[in-house]
């Protein structure tokens, strides 16, 4: 499976972000990708306005997703990204949406909200309550996670026990002392401890680190972006997964039960 990681700086204006996404979709198609992963919160971002997710949330039949779905209908490329959608109440959902062939094929509402490092995502976002099912792309099974989920090993392990080959993580990882080191350690750990590839795609710009990366099942960083917008590609090799699980059979050797949502 060939994966494309589309890292960019999200603006305040949804139309500008939609145009960037369409461009990334076209370039990923031209690059022969089977999967394109985009960052978290790509509808709009403004570091001066903590309530922007409330003001800019759109339903999945709104103009932002309609534009992306129209572009998606032109190929078999699978595309994943996180957008904020209305709940019908006072908060919004942080929704990891997967589209293919002009249709929405899955949704995952973020379980772990970023109430840490003086931030409080839960002020505006309602958490999900369902572990997402695996998605198949190019013969491989993918488990879905979003940003702060990375700090909780249970979801990644649940996906691995359920049969995931690859973990997908759109993110908007906030800058701060030691935060880029946290990203490196945690992305690598989730891959290595589950003998899965992980595709982690970060938003870049004024607030967030970027640093999108693919780490293989033995903890080797296959490709990595810097702090500026980029489209990078990586090959996901099934033989590498089989090799890792033969020499490091942690999934077979584990003594703990399958993680369940509390």
From TrEMBL:
Residues 1-238 form the CN hydrolase domain. GO terms for molecular function: hydrolase activity. Pfam families: CN_hydrolase (PF00795). The keyword Hydrolase applies. The keyword Lipoprotein does not apply. SUPFAM superfamilies: Carbon-nitrogen hydrolase. Belongs to the carbon-nitrogen hydrolase superfamily. NIT1/NIT2 family. This is Hydrolase.
């Amino acid at each position: 499976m060939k994966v494309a990681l589309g890292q960019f700086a999200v603006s305040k204006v949804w139309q500008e972000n939609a145009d960037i996404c369409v461009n990334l979709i076209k370039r990923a198609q031209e690059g022969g990708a089977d999967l394109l992963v985009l960052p978290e919160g790509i509808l709009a971002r403004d570091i001066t306005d903590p309530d922007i997710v409330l003001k800019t949330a759109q339903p999945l039949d709104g103009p932002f997703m309609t534009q992306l779905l129209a572009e998606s209908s032109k190929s078999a490329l699978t595309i994943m990204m996180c957008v904020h959608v209305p709940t019908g109440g006072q908060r919004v959902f942080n929704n990891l949406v997967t589209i293919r062939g002009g249709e929405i094929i899955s949704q995952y509402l973020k379980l772990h909200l970023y109430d840490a490092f003086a931030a409080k995502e839960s002020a505006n976002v309602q958490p999900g309550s369902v572990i997402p099912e695996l998605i198949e792309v190019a013969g491989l099974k993918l488990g879905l996670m979003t940003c702060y989920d990375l700090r909780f090993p249970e979801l990644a392990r649940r996906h691995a026990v359920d049969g995931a080959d690859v973990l997908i993580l759109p993110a908007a990882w906030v800058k701060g002392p030691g935060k880029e080191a946290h990203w490196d350690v945690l992305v690598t750990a989730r891959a290595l401890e589950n003998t899965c590839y992980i595709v982690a795609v970060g938003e870049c710009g004024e607030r967030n680190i970027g640093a999108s990366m693919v780490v293989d099942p033995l903890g080797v960083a296959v490709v990595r972006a810097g702090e500026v917008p980029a489209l990078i590609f990586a090959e996901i090799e099934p033989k590498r997964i089989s090799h890792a699980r033969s020499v490091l059979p942690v999934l077979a050797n584990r003594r703990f039960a399958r993680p369940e949502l509390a």
